[in-house]
Each structure stands twice: as structure tokens, then as C-alpha cells.
UniProtKB/TrEMBL annotation:
Protein name: Methyltransferase domain-containing protein
Domain Methyltransferase type span(s) in chain numbering: 43-140
GO MF term (any one): methyltransferase activity
Highest taxon of source: Bacteria
Amino acid sequence: MAMLGFDDEGARRLQRVYSTPDVVAQRAEVLRRLRPAAGEAVLDVGSGPGFLVAAIADAVGTDGVVRGLDPSPAMNAMASAYCADRSQVRIDDGDAGALPYPDGAFDAVVSTQVYEYVADVLGALVEVRRVLRPGGRFVVLDTDWESMVWHAADRELHRRVLEAWEEHLVDPRLPRVLPGLLERAGFRVVERVLIPLFNPVYDENTYSAGTIEVIGDFVTGRQGLTEQDVARWADDLRSRGTDYLFTINRYCFVATS
Ligand SMILES: C[S@@+](CC[C@H](N)C(=O)[O-])C[C@H]1O[C@@H](n2cnc3c(N)ncnc32)[C@H](O)[C@@H]1O
């Protein structure tokens, strides 16, 4: 797997995409399932820009404890700055495979768009179960990248772009096996929720418009894709107007330990 740039520029780009109404609505759906309550201790694995951490902190209040964990220094700097006025929050440097917390430390754990980047998902889920108290809640969300529908003119070029894009993930179709892995890690899956993102017209302030830039940057130079190929692919999507269409499915699983 080639790592997506979760450096300063990558973090800023992700922050923009994750501020769009599409991803704001997705976070609200995840929060609704996580149900953080006043005074609880909650962990966000792979906390990225820290938007979900902040929302959880507001729900648990100053008597609660919220930890965000991420291996990217750029992401952690961004999340720490974003949550700076919330004393119940600490952002820690670390990896999903070895959570730096004691057994049973949390009432709830959440992780969105992270395990598709993790090599040993089962091991990471076992770690989540270890740091949850008995009966604790776990909400996990990932994308099946094959669920993406995007109205591109040159289907062969589009196929090559998406094939190159998948190089940044360990498992681009993780949701298909996540419930089974959760059960093997000792969880009971209690809810399965489909969260589609739908952009029926081209609009700069959408998930897909921002993602054109993220994908374009990553795939240039991979699988023989030149700058010109990628510019042609991006220009076509951006100029589709009312013929534009984008959808992708997120899969959210709620489990108890
Ligand atoms: C697509 S972003 C999602 C960020 C955040 N969870 C959200 O939904 O807003 C993926 C995040 O996972 C982090 N990540 C990648 N590999 C990881 C690992 N092995 N353990 C923990 N986090 C990881 C990245 O640094 C990045 O912040």
C-alpha cells in the first residue's frame, strides 16, 4: 500500500473535504449511533482533523474524557488546535494496532474511515475490545470503494484512475468482512447502517468535488497516468454541470463488547 499524504497539505485538504455538508451529515449519523453521554470516557481511533472528537467532547461535557489517537503529526496538530478550548480532550500519537490505554478505560470507542488503512484489522479490533469496558459500545464506519458511481466520459481512463487510487488502501472493500471480523474479535454486532453520500450536481462544497483533487494528486504518476491524463479526467468531471452524478456508500456497524 502507498500511504496517502496525511502530511500538512494532505491534512488541510482532508479538513476541507470533511467540512462539506456531506461529511457533516455522516458525522451526525455516527454520533447518533455512538450516543456519547455526560461524564463518559470515549476514544476516537484515527481521529484525523478532530471534528468528531470535538462533537463527542461537547456531548460528554467537562466531566467526561475524550481521547483522539492518530499516527499523523499533521493530523494531530490540526486536531489539537481544533479542540484546544475543550479541556476534556487530549490527542495522542499512536497506532490502531497498539492502543496506548489500559484495559477497560473507555465507555465507547468510535473509528471512521480508518481500518481500510490498517494491515491487521482483526488485531486492531481486539485492541478496541481490550480498552472498552464490558458492555461498552463500538461504532465503526468504512467505505466500500466499489460502491462508487461517478459519471465520467472516458470510462477506461476513469477505471485506471480508480485502480491507481485503490493503491492507497489496504482493503478498499473492508465493509464486506467487517461484521465477521467484529464477531471474531469478540463483539456482538447490534446494528448495520448504510450511509450513502450523494452529489447529484457538481458543487465545489461537496465531498466528491474535493475528492477529485485528493484522488488526482495521489494517482498522478501511478499506473502510467500522466499529469495530462489526470487533468483530462478531472476537467471532465468538473465540467459536467447538470449531467454530474456521484454516489458512494459508507457502512456503519454498531457493536457491543
Ligand atoms: C480518511 S482519514 C479519517 C479521519 C477521521 N477518522 C474522520 O473520519 O474524520 C484516515 C485517518 O486514519 C489515520 N490512520 C491511518 N493509519 C492509521 C493507523 N494504523 N492507526 C490509526 N490511525 C490511522 C490517518 O492518519 C488519518 O488521520
